[in-house]
Design a protein that fits this description.
One of its GO terms (molecular function) is oxidoreductase activity. This protein is of the alpha/beta class and 179 residues long. It has one domain: 3-Layer(aba) Sandwich (Rossmann fold). It is 36% helix and 18% strand. It has a 5-stranded parallel sheet, sandwiched between helices. β1, α1 and β2 form a beta-alpha-beta unit.
Amino acid sequence: MPSQKIKIFAINGSTRKNSSNFKILKHVSEHIKEKFEVEIFKELDQLPHFNPDLDQEIPPEKIIQFRDKIAQADGVLICTPEYVFSLPGTLKNALEWCVSTTVFSGKKTGFITASASGEMAHEQLLLVMKTLEAKFDDASQLLIQGIRGKIDNEGKITNPDTEKALESFITNFENQFLD
């Protein structure tokens, strides 16, 4: 009897069609597909704006579905760009909808920030996810600066150092679940 694949819910922090972040999530998905089933969430722009008044008894249906995807996954992978020295508003909005829940508490999580600089967004993402009690460490996060010059239009990593860093990240991410 084949063993069940580990479910990963991957969140693309960019709303740009075929973004570098989406390409990286596809790259990671391809490299872990033997043991992991990865669902890439591409609907950040469809989530309603966070409003604590709407997060009472029954939140909006799209939020319930989003939270359920996180809760049902064995782990979460977030890949995001940096916009104006910060997290993209749509990603921050999605994460704000999770503050009143425990969907991230103890959830094995990996982070990749891939942008021109990315330092500020990466720092902010780690702070938000720490607040949400996601489970991660230094080995399950990666900052890729200057991403546009390191990946081609088809999603192939063209920079050898970036390829090595991603390989290391993938191994560390996998090991969280296989140890």
